[in-house]
Amino acid sequence: MNALYSTDGHYIHPSILNADFMRIGEELDRIATADAIHADVMDDHFVPNLTFGPSMIEQIVRRSDLPVDAHLMIEDADRRAPAYAEAGASSVTFHLEAAKAPIRLARELRRRNVAVGVGLRPATPVEPLLDVIGEFDMLLIMTVEPGFGGQSFLETMLPKIRRARRAVSEANLEVSIQVDGGVSRETIERCADAGANVFVAGSAIYRAQDAADEIAVLRDLAGQHRHS
Ligand code: DX5
Ligand code: ZN
């Protein structure tokens, strides 16, 4: 089992998308108390935005003691995702919409000893995935349309989180449920209550005066509403 984030715990993953890339070393230091660094890889095709590739992941891995959670918003995941495992990411999440053979890809990534996540855009239903969810360590339910930080949380994703958590618990599987997009002090409790246990927050943490304090507040709020 490659589960990096135990399903008994809850984890805060700051997204560096909203960090100042000119001062990335210091920006990583600001989030040293987090559980992992969420790195958003965008290719200007799967989403209308462009960030960085495997060499940046490699540099972040070298610079920080935290695990790196690579979120690939890229087309042709089957061919391109393994490079992110090779770059040293601890978990690699690809989008279901961008993979032709998601199970083959998940197995290929697991062989490279990374935790494997599968991501769903807001309009992609979770049900078709439920029969094969045990192939993954993490299910990412996007709570905004992927592509940009600072968008508002889609409340309509809460029933989807709840259904996914119910299916995972009923099947007795160790699969984490990650939420990404618009997660903040205002929304994290509802996500936790619905069954999410890995929380990505970009602007909420990087726009805070004190990022460590914001991480602590988010962790505490999520912990109080932990799904059991
Ligand atoms: C959006 C990215 C997110 C983004 C979240 O497509 O996947 O990780 O950085 O940013 P906030 O928390 O500001 O919505
Ligand atoms: Zn992300």
Q: Approximately what portion of the residues adopt beta-strand conformation?
A: 15-25%
The residue ranges in which pLDDT falls below 50 over 5 or more consecutive positions are none
H/E series, N to C?
Answer: EHEHEHHEHEHEHEHEHH
At the fourth level of CATH, the homologous superfamily is Aldolase class I
Q: Assign the structural class, choosing from mainly alpha, mainly beta, alpha/beta, alpha+beta, or little secondary structure.
A: alpha/beta
Radius of gyration: 16 Å
Strand order of the largest sheet: 1-8-7-6-5-4-3-2
> What average pLDDT do the residues reach?
96
Oligomer: single chain
Largest sheet: 8 strands, parallel
Give the CA-based shape. Answer: globular
Number of DSSP strands? 8
Count of helical segments?
Answer: 10
Would you kindly provide a brief summary of this structure?
This protein is α/β, with parallel strands linked by helices. 34% of the residues lie in helices and 18% in strands.
Explained architecture:
- This protein has 228 residues and is of the alpha/beta class.
- It has ten helices and eight strands.
- The protein starts with 10 loop residues before the first strand and ends with a helix.
- It has helices spanning 24-29, 54-63, 77-80, 82-86, 102-111, 127-130, 158-170, 188-194, 203-206, 211-224, and strands at residues 11-14, 37-42, 68-73, 91-95, 115-120, 138-142, 176-180, 198-201.
- An eight-stranded parallel beta sheet has the order 1-8-7-6-5-4-3-2.
- The chain has a single domain (3-223), classed as TIM Barrel, CATH 3.20.20.70.
- The structure holds D-xylitol-5-phosphate and zinc ion.
- Residues 15, 17-18, 38, 40, 71, 144, 146-151, 180-183, 200-204 line the site of D-xylitol-5-phosphate.
